Amino acid sequence: MTTYIFFDEALRMLTNAYLMSVVLLLAASGIGLAVIETIEKAEEP
User: Fold this and answer.
1) Cα separations (Å) of 14 from 5, 18, 26, 45?
2) Nearest-5° angle of CA 40, CA 35, CA 37?
3) Global pTM?
4) Integer Cα distance of 11 and 44 in angstroms
């Protein structure tokens, strides 16, 4: 028995995965920039 995924369902899954990856990338870059900024502030005399 073969189970098929309809095109609209597959497109919705790919769109959700893309949007989630964009959100996670933005969150990771924001956290990384915050960490770098705190390290730079700690090194100042």
Assistant:
1) 12, 6, 18, 49
2) 35
3) 0.68
4) 50
